[in-house]
Amino acid sequence: MSNLKLLRRTKQLKGHFEMRSAKQQSLFPELYEDIVLSPKPVNIASVPQRSPFRYPGGKTWFVPVFRNWLANHYPKPEILIEPFAGGGIISLTALFENLVSYVVMVEIDEDIAAVWQSIVDGNAEWLAKKILDFDLTKEAVIEEISKTGVCIKEKAFQTILKNRTFHGGILAEGSGFLKHGENGKGIRSRWYPTTLAKRFDNLKLVADRITFRQEDGLGVIREYSQRCDVVFFIDPPYTAGGKKAGKRLYRHFNLDHECLFTHCESVKGDFLMTYDNADEVKTMARRHGFQMRLIPMTNTHHATMEELVIGKDLTWMDGYPAVHEPVAEYKAANRKKRVPTKRRT
Ligand SMILES: C[S@@+](CC[C@H](N)C(=O)[O-])C[C@H]1O[C@@H](n2cnc3c(N)ncnc32)[C@H](O)[C@@H]1O
What we know:
By secondary structure, the chain is an alpha/beta fold. It has a seven-stranded mixed β-sheet with strand order 5-4-3-6-7-9-8, sandwiched between helices. A two-stranded antiparallel sheet has the order 1-2. The chain is built from twelve helices and nine strands. A hairpin with a 5-residue loop joins strand 8 and strand 9. It has three domains: 39 residues, no CATH class; 191 residues, Rossmann fold; 101 residues. Helix 5 packs across helix 7 and helix 5 runs antiparallel to helix 8. Bound molecules: S-adenosylmethionine. S-adenosylmethionine (SAM) binds next to helix 3 and helix 9.
């Protein structure tokens, strides 16, 4: 790589990611202050937490990469669509940081949907007050979440209570109350009423730029696929292969992943998709002609692992490891040897 190109690449990555760096010797030391070696997981404490959820599989750690992705779009996209919104940290970041004008958040789970719908309906302040007034004990939570026939904003409050008091924030069947929690504080250990109320209060500021839809995200991708001013951040339940972690985390985990990839192929704007690093996913991505990069993240057990980022053109992610193609066999004339390929995807 030429000196100029290397400098440009370094500057582009610097400041967007937290990178491992090293002093390099060169003819122009002033130009090579830091040279990127390889990315390390983002420290999520450095990312503003704007979501009222503690969401299983949440993408707070992905925020710096997401910002960098949008920074590489000119002109700025008008709308961000999040077809699998969950805790919605990516959409909220895009709004608060003015990376797009509007977002369309889609979530099929009715409990989660109640929260987003309440915010859009102008009930964020009501939720903030309800949180501040609630005296959280196990008995009080059980009484509150057992109420039936409640309106949307009350359902939203029930969802927040469950999300904050259930193990891992998981609302799927089989989930139960936190036993020990942080510092042995049990059921109260994730209940920060002032912080949560503040987040809801802040959401009032962006509520009129959110369209929320409780429906199948696949249909919404298809609906907007022909618009060039739209970008999609796609974070589906991880159930296409490998450990299928999404099965345990979400009530709605079944998804036609092949159909999702087909819809992505028709997108005229741009999309960025995250997935677990499973062979089945990589095979699908290759078949649909997409590029892939590996990105480090720290899971809930503080172990560093890699997730997949999939898109049409990931050249802006050249600082990240590529996924190497499996060894291919060629049957060219006069060539008896197996030739391994090392194409970047
Ligand atoms: C991996 S999570 C998204 C997490 C989110 N990116 C965040 O940062 O919090 C996937 C979400 O997709 C939702 N979901 C599953 N199937 C869906 C579908 N067909 N349409 C819309 N949402 C769906 C699940 O309920 C879950 O909340």
